């Protein structure tokens, strides 16, 4: 479990070295983490994405469809599955 700022800094350093684009979102779909590989893939800088809705990266973004999909994902009985990786098509 991450407790101190050094733990968070270590995790951030690890995520920054991963070759795959990693994006973490909160329950409302706002981007919380956007690693350098995601910057290379999408062309957005981290500061341009953090706090914005994940839909900005999805093709043909329709807010109500994205919100419904996010709600369905979060309503699963086994909440542990909300931390598994998902692969989706993006812009």
Based on the model shown, name its key terms.
2 strands, two-stranded antiparallel ribbon, 8% strand, mainly alpha, globular
How does this structure look, described?
By secondary structure, this protein is mostly helical. The chain contains 4 helices and 2 strands. The protein has helices at 5-17, 36-42, 46-49, 63-74; strands at residues 23-25, 31-34. A two-stranded antiparallel ribbon has the order 1-2. Strand 1 (23-25) and strand 2 (31-34) form a beta hairpin. It starts with a helix and ends in a 17-residue tail after the last helix.
The first-to-last residue Cα distance is 34 Å
Helix content range of the residues, please?
Answer: 25-40%
Run of helices and strands: HEEHHH
Overall pLDDT level: 78
Rg calculated over all Cα atoms: 14 Å
Largest sheet: 2 strands, antiparallel
The main sheet orders its strands as 1-2
Q: pLDDT under 50 segments (min length 5)?
A: none
* Class computed from helices, strands and strand pairing: mainly alpha
So what's the overall shape? globular
Q: What proportion strand?
A: 5-15%
Give a count of the beta strands, DSSP E runs of length 2 or more.
2
Helix count, DSSP H or I runs of 4 or more residues: 4
Q: Quick recap of the structure?
A:
Helices cover 40% and strands 8% of the residues. The chain is mainly alpha-helical and 91 residues long.
Lay out the secondary structure.
Blueprint: H1 5-17, E1 23-25, E2 31-34, H2 36-42, H3 46-49, H4 63-74
